[in-house]
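quick one: adenosine-5'-diphosphate bound model?
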Amino acid sequence: MCNIIVLKGDITVYPADIIVNAANSSLLGGGGVDGAIHRKGGAAILDECQKIRARQGGCYAGNAVITTAGLLPAKYVIHAVGPRWNDGTKGEAELLQQTYQRCLHLAVEHNARSMSFPNISTGTYQFPKELAAQIASDTIFAFFEDNQSIETINIVCYEQDNYDIYQAIIKRREI
Ligand code: ADP
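yep, here:
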């Protein structure tokens, strides 16, 4: 049985086996949650991202790579590249679902018991928040119908509106 917990604030302060980063294709860091993770995690994370880049040339939308967590309270960081919202007709929904699935599979492969997700694509990439939350929660719940090795998933919402949206979704599921 997996616990899904909705938290508020900065993802870098919550201990978990894996912290997911909303990265971009360059894997070289950026603003938002990406900036916070690299700042708090230290140089070891960027160092590994650069090695991955040298090997595979970055990471496309819908995919993710895994590195050390550096100084963060975690074993690994998964750098997930969500889709940039365009007009909804460019496969954005499928790509966001694929991004969450890829993170969950990588976490299982690395024997994670707990992991934290930020609200991927809902910042700079401008994915509509309600739709993103619905896709994220549907994907996570569907995944746990077949796989119970992860015990706790934190959904860490930095913004109050995302927090409210997830609280409402979780409440509906519990009814
Ligand atoms: P993207 O490019 O995927 O949209 P962003 O980092 O711009 O990535 O935003 C993704 C989400 O992460 C947004 O909801 C944003 O408010 C949130 N966010 C920003 N900083 C943090 C943080 N320190 N911890 C958790 N979430 C954060």
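The beta strands are 3-8, 18-23, 64-68, 76-81, 114-117, 152-157.
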